[in-house]
């Protein structure tokens, strides 16, 4: 049995959403603590924080599934994420250049590594799509498609059926900024 969307539309949804966000924030915090510990030569402490961050990320993903934050048929989302990762490589490189120009060469060096990783994420997702994405054998009835103007995420269906506080699963933009395709 899938746990996808079990709490969506129930009295539990707001609580699960809060916990999901807290876990996502915890992921960021633990990775930051790991980086700070590592900079201070505390590699064993950094390892503990990284393990905690990894667990927090798993927790956030679980709660996202419970609330149906991402579509159960995730292939279209994966295609959008692939494109965003490829675009992210160029965006992070541009940002790194600004950071370098501001005199922070060491930070820019790290960001350039991150940029390559973003591009690699796109490549990995593209390979997954080629290998595992089911082929579309027959077209279903056309649905409305709404596009996020920031990241390009495409929502299929009636976006107005989502709650008022619904946001883009990729970049967090509110549903009111989406435009029908």
Features:
4% strand, 3 strands, mainly alpha, 4 helices, 181 residues
Description:
59% of the residues lie in helices and 4% in strands. The chain has four helices and three strands, in the order ααααβββ. A three-stranded antiparallel beta sheet has the order 2-1-3. A hairpin with a 6-residue loop joins strand 1 and strand 2. Helix 1 packs antiparallel against helix 2 and helix 3 packs antiparallel against helix 4. The protein is globular. It starts with 12 loop residues before the first helix and ends with a strand. The mean pLDDT is 93.
Topology diagram in text:
Blueprint: H1 13-39, H2 43-66, H3 75-101, H4 105-132, E1 145-147, E2 154-156, E3 179-180
Antiparallel strand pairs: 1-2, 1-3
Helix pairs in contact: 1-2, 3-4
Number of strands: 3
- Please outline the major beta sheet: 3 strands, antiparallel
What strand line-up does the widest sheet have? 2-1-3
Strand content: under 5%
- List SSEs in N-to-C order: HHHHEEE
Structural class computed from helices and strand pairing: mainly alpha
Kindly report the average pLDDT value. 93
Question: What is the rounded Rg?
Answer: 19 Å
| Poorly predicted ranges | none
In short:
The chain is mostly helical.
């Amino acid at each position: 049995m899938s746990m996808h969307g079990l709490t969506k539309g129930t009295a539990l949804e707001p609580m699960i959403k809060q916990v999901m966000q807290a876990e996502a924030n915890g992921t960021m915090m633990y990775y930051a603590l790991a980086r700070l510990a590592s900079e201070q030569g505390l590699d064993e402490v950094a390892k503990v924080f990284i393990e905690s961050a990894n667990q927090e990320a798993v927790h956030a993903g679980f709660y996202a599934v419970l609330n149906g934050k991402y579509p159960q048929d995730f292939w279209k989302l994966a295609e959008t994420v692939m494109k965003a990762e490829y675009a992210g490589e160029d965006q992070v490189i541009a940002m790194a250049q600004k950071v370098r120009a501001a005199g922070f060469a060491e930070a820019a060096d790290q960001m350039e590594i991150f940029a390559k990783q973003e591009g690699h994420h796109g490549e990995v997702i593209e390979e997954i799509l080629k290998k595992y994405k089911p082929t579309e054998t027959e077209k279903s009835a056309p649905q409305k498609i709404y596009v996020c103007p920031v990241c390009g995420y495409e929502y299929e269906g009636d976006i107005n059926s989502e709650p008022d506080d619904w946001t883009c699963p990729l970049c967090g933009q509110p549903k009111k900024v989406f435009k029908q395709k």
